[in-house]
């Protein structure tokens, strides 16, 4: 086939570049394994119910610790911690860095300590996100709820 210009030839080549060859075997997608993300709030003094959720209550001066685990083991990779506060009828970001990325240890665990949270009439929620990698799909833990009291 002859073209009037090199530009016309390039345009045709570009338009068919993404087309599959008829009768060619379809490309096999890489199989990704599932991941699982779990979390737990530790150090609270009691639990209450709020809007059908279990809320962990912390004293303002106590250690508010979130621990989490990603499986299979993803040592050295990171998981993101998302923290929100229920404010004026809506969930809004409660931290400057959202998500806050934490490097997983040799056992694929991570932890953060919420410091500086003062007693307030607000409910917070937190969950952990693992984005996945070449061999593993991402996962998200369920929401955990907490409140800081006097």
TrEMBL record:
Residues 1-29 form the signal peptide. Keywords: Signal. It comes from the Bacteria. This is SH3 domain-containing protein.
């Amino acid at each position: 086939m002859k073209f009037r210009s090199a530009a016309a030839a390039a345009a045709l080549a570009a338009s068919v570049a993404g087309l599959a060859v008829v009768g060619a075997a379809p490309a096999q997608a890489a199989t990704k394994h599932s991941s699982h993300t779990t979390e737990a709030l530790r150090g609270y003094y009691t639990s209450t119910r709020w809007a059908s959720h279990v809320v962990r209550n912390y004293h303002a001066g106590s250690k508010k610790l979130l621990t989490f685990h990603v499986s299979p083991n993803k040592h050295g990779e990171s998981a993101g911690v998302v923290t929100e506060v229920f404010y004026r009828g809506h969930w809004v970001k409660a931290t400057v860095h959202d998500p806050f990325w934490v490097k997983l240890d040799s056992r694929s665990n991570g932890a953060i300590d919420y410091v500086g949270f003062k007693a307030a009439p607000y409910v917070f929620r937190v969950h952990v996100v693992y984005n996945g990698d070449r061999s593993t799909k991402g996962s998200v833990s369920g929401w955990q709820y907490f409140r800081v009291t006097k």
